[in-house]
Amino acid sequence: MIPTFAVVGQPNKGKSSIVATLAEDERIAIAPTPGTTRTAHHYTLSIDGQPQYALVDTPGFQRARAVLDWLEARATTAQERPAVVARFVEEHRDDPRFHDECELLGPIIDGAGILYVVDGTKPYGPEYELEMQVLQWTGRPRMALINLIGDGDFVDEWRRALDQYFSIVRVFDAVGADFGTRLALLRAFAELDEGWRAPIERAVDALTAERERRARRAAAEIADCLVACLGMVERAPLSDADASSTDRRRELEGRLLERLRDGIRDREREARDRVQSIYRHQNLQRHDVAAELLATDIFTDEGWELFGLSRTELVVSGALSGAVAGGGIDVLLGGASLLLGSGIGALVGGAGAWFGGNELARVKVLGQSLGGRKLQVGPVRAPNFPWVMLGRAWVHHRLVAERNHARREAMSLSMGEESHLMDGVPDRLRKDLAGTFKALQKDPEDGQARRRLAEQVETLLGVEPAG
Ligand SMILES: Nc1nc2c(ncn2[C@@H]2O[C@H](COP(=O)(O)OP(=O)(O)OP(=O)(O)O)[C@@H](O)[C@H]2O)c(=O)[nH]1
Ligand SMILES: [Mg+2]
22-25 long-range contacts, Cβ below 8 Å, gap at least 24? Predict the structure, then answer.
């Protein structure tokens, strides 16, 4: 049997939250109403298909006094106590009065360790003593977790009480705990029972290795998305009538540009979903954060200011030179600058933020022979474009990777007005990325540049964003 821990306590103390955090399961029901969990449920944390440990979510204690009375009326010596608890469960399986107690004691009798959860922001009281005694009667290894739900601080009095019944007492913030804190808690589990030491150590190693793998996979997804978006184009047949009327051609360009932007948005969304899946956060909401920056559309000045490079950074990293020196728009037919002043400013929400001239996307006319001509819009040429995409992906990854599975509100990003995300990127890495972006903007199929990008993104994911 893998190390298994039954998470028990009174209703609404964060038991399910602790299970969700440690089992990395975002589907477990967590709610502010007591009695959310009605039956005991096993959740196994597996890595690469290998079960590592299991948590049992249970309903809260309801009638500890009655249970204890029943137990005390039956056992005479300490060594008989666990058997008497087992008998209690056996005899009350179908008794609705003790439904919750049978659900929570069952897994313990079956061999689970006990994680007893209390809320350290509420005062200690004698009613808890009864359930601690019931747990003590089971004779199973047990640890107490002081969760912090509200604002009060009664941790010291809780500690004094819990120390009497539990070999290990820890403060553990179910919703706020980050990866390191979770590992520390797992290591404490290993101390509860000699038999759990080796499997828990294996689990800690597996989790650590898995975390590195996840970052690598996420970096690859982000790099793939960048490459796809840097090379993305939209094409449509260009009729003679379209070609000869400036208005009609501009209208077509506008439509294609809109399609290009949709394509980029979709591809970005797809990459976000994949990164969230890697971290088992498939259902984490992003759209509720509409007011928040991460949800801002990629094609806004605000997003570009925040996530991209500043003008100075663009120059210093060398990202600007080529694209801006090249300056104009690549028009193969007509010789006119199709995009300049053609309403693209309005389409993209102001050209100022693109930091590199007015050009957003390249416009080309392709193929003048048999198949007829085509108008092509894209790829996006603005020098800051890959930086904005990368900055957004970086922040999203950070939020997802750090996020604990008990936390259910939508993601939000708090960054100061003045903060500039990319300030946190080491100069060397920024220069390397600029070089790779330039290579990819020139040739999105450049295989070496693609590999370099995946590596550089992986390095970036390990950097703490500024702001
Ligand atoms: N701020 C904060 N809220 C928490 C924490 N842990 C739990 N909560 C909240 O407390 C409420 C109850 O959490 P649950 O995990 O459902 O509690 P439970 O003990 O499983 O409750 P029952 O299943 O009803 O017995 C939820 O609204 C949680 O979001 C915490 O560490 N910090
Ligand atoms: Mg619950």
Answer: 22/53, 22/55, 22/182, 22/185, 22/186, 23/54, 23/55, 23/405, 24/280, 24/405, 25/280, 25/405
Q: Is the CB of 60 under 6 A from ligand 1?
A: yes
- 153, 171 Cβ separation under 8 angstroms: no
More confident position, 213 or 403: 213
Q: Ligand 1 pocket test: which of 21, 36, 131, 170 has the largest number of ligand atoms within 8 Å of its C-beta?
A: 36
Q: Which DSSP state fits 352?
A: G
Helix locations, 48-98, DSSP H? 64-72, 81-92
Would the CB of 326 count as within 6 Å of ligand 1?
no
pLDDT higher than 70, residue 463: yes
CA 408 to ligand 2 centroid distance, Å? 14
- Any ligand 1 atom below 6 A from CB of 329: no
Residue 124: pLDDT above 70?
Answer: yes
- Nearest ligand for residue 8 CA: 1
Task: Say yes or no: CB of residue 149 within 6 Å of ligand 1.
Answer: yes
* Contact (Cβ atoms closer than 8 angstroms) between residue 11 and residue 18: no
User: How far is the centre of ligand 2, averaged over its atoms, from the C-alpha of 161 (Å)?
Assistant: 24
Alpha carbons 422 and 466: distance in angstroms, whole number: 7
Q: Are strands 113-119 and 50-57 parallel, antiparallel or unpaired?
A: unpaired
In angstroms, rounded to a whole number, what is the distance separating the alpha carbons of residues 255 and 385?
20
pLDDT over 50 at 408, yes or no: yes
User: Can you name the residues that pair with 224 across neighbouring β-strands?
Assistant: none
pTM of the full structure = 0.81
Return all residues near 351 (Cβ < 8 A) that are at least 6 apart: 344, 345, 358, 360
Closest ligand 1 atom to the C-alpha of 35? 24
Nearest ligand, CA 174: 1
Residue that wins the pLDDT comparison between 294 and 338: 294
What confidence tier does 283 reach under pLDDT thresholds 50, 70, 90? confident
- Domains in the chain (CATH in brackets) are 4-192 (3.40.50.300), 215-461 (no CATH)
Ligand 1 centroid to residue 136 C-alpha, Å: 24
Q: What pLDDT digit, counting tens, does each position of 8-53 carry?
A: 999 999 999 999 999 999 899 999 999 999 999 999 999 999 999 9
Q: State in Å: Cα 106 to ligand 2 middle.
A: 16
Å from CA of 105 to ligand 1 middle: 20
**CB 13 less than 6 A from any atom of ligand 1:** yes
